[in-house]
Design goal:
Protein name: Phosphopantetheine-binding protein
Distance between the termini: 16 Å
Radius of gyration: 12 Å
Order of helices and strands: HHH
Number of strands: 0
InterPro entries: ACP-like_sf, PP-bd_ACP
Pfam families: PP-binding
Structural class: mainly alpha
Mean pLDDT: 95
Oligomer: single chain
Helix content: 40-55%
Shape: globular
Number of helices: 3
Largest sheet: none
Strand content: under 5%
């Protein structure tokens, strides 16, 4: 599962997700308000927060389809600890 930073960051870009609702791996991000502009802003915030750079092949609708896919992509960019 993802960390609290990811959860908090992602929630800030989902205006239609209430604070009481769980953010599940399969939550459809577009249905909760993640539009194209918000996706670009989210990408920049995630790159800054995690010190990574998304590769061109990860910049597609599937990557930003749901939290599970996005976290898997992001986790794959982070150096092993």
């Amino acid at each position: 599962m993802w960390d609290s930073t990811f959860d908090e960051t992602l929630r800030s870009f989902l205006p239609f997700l209430s604070t009481e609702e769980a953010l599940a791996a399969d939550t459809p991000l577009r249905e909760y308000g993640l539009d194209s502009l918000a996706t670009v802003e989210l990408l920049a915030v995630l790159e800054q927060n995690y010190g990574v750079r998304f590769q061109d092949d990860a910049l597609n609708l599937e990557t930003f389809e749901n939290p599970g896919r996005l976290w898997t992509t992001l986790a794959g960019l982070q150096p092993a600890s």
